[in-house]
Amino acid sequence: VIPEWGRTLTDEELHAEMMADTFVGGSETSTNALSGGIMLLTQHKDQWAKLKSDPDKYVPQLVEEAVRLEGPVQGLFRTAAVDVEMHGVRIPAGAIVNIRYAAANRDERHFENPDALDLDRPNSRSQIGFGAGVHFCLGAPLARRELAIGFRAFVDNIDDFELIDSSMTFEYQKNFALRALTSLPIRFTKKK
């Protein structure tokens, strides 16, 4: 029930909201995940070599690792439905909680060497960059497909690449919830 309205969403309103979330949420976020994944490859050239050696095997892994390490959505707010205690902290029902996907995706208790891009990571698909449970991203299958197509086009058309300035530090747009590079200046050699 939406308290301000005194009712739940109608099927039509729910469908409209789902479509808006898919279209709006799926454009900038996919672009940001692609650039984040390419940035990761500039830092892990051994993984670039691995990706080129077997794109069919490693492109899906790159999708998961890019979302895990450079997820375009860093977290969202949720309202606790019931009283709960987590790690000794009591969260009362109705409390607003900031869920940080980015922190969970780098949890060393779940991911070995969590800050590294690892295309052989056995549990990469357990990343929660798309949320979880009832809040799982409706557009996740589309996003995974878009990222796979984008990364595959990159590996199929680029022989090699490097940062234009190898000493550059990466800067991100100032945004609490979303992660987006301000630029990614690379020089590449096209496949012949």
Q: Overview of this structure, please?
A:
There is one protein chain. This protein is an alpha+beta fold. It has one domain: Cytochrome P450 (Cytochrome p450, Orthogonal Bundle). The chain is 42% helix and 14% strand. The chain has 5 helices and 6 strands. It has helices spanning 11-43, 45-53, 55-70, 101-104, 140-157; strands spanning 75-79, 84-86, 89-91, 96-100, 158-163, 186-190. Strands 1-4 form a two-stranded antiparallel sheet. Strands 2-3 form a two-stranded antiparallel sheet. The protein is globular, with a radius of gyration of 19 Å.
Give a short synopsis of this structure.
The chain is α+β, with helices and mostly antiparallel strands and 192 residues long. The protein is built from 5 helices and 6 strands.
**What's the shape?**
globular
CATH level 4 superfamily: Cytochrome P450
* Secondary-structure content class: alpha+beta
Report the biggest beta sheet as strand number plus sense, adding barrel if it closes.
Answer: 2 strands, antiparallel
Q: Which oligomerization state do the chains in this entry correspond to?
A: single chain
Average pLDDT level:
92
Helix percent reads 40-55%
The CATH topology: Cytochrome p450
H-E order: HHHEEEEHHEE
- What's the CATH architecture name? Orthogonal Bundle
Q: How large is the count of helical segments?
A: 5
Order of adjacent strands in the largest pleated sheet:
1-4
Radius of gyration: 19 Å
State the low-pLDDT regions, or none.
Answer: none
What is the domain tally? Answer: 1
CATH class: Mainly Alpha
Total strand segments = 6
